[in-house]
Amino acid sequence: MTTEIKICMGSACFAKGNQENLEFIKQYIEENNLDSEITIIGSLCENKCEKGPRIIINDKEYTNVTPDYIEKILKEQ
Ligand code: FES
After folding, report:
1. Low-confidence ranges of the chain (pLDDT < 70)
2. What DSSP designation does 47 have?
3. Which of 13, 22, 32, 44 lies 20 to 30 angstroms, CA to CA, from 69?
4. Cα 2 to ligand 1 centroid, rounded to whole Å
5. What CATH number does the domain containing 65 carry?
């Protein structure tokens, strides 16, 4: 099954940590050879900035995400 990761690229989420989160995900994909299994998509601000940084993995929303948290979620996929 492929995993779709949508990362909020709105300025608030990006500044609050999605810049690092995006780098982390790219690195995670590379290190684990998951190129064909994980798709990254950028999304626009959905006015939930106070809960940011926001990431949606397979249609499930995660808020206040950090690289550690993302790693945990991805390992469970
Ligand atoms: S910037 Fe992500 S919800 Fe607004």
Report:
1. none
2. S
3. 44
4. 25
5. 3.40.30.10
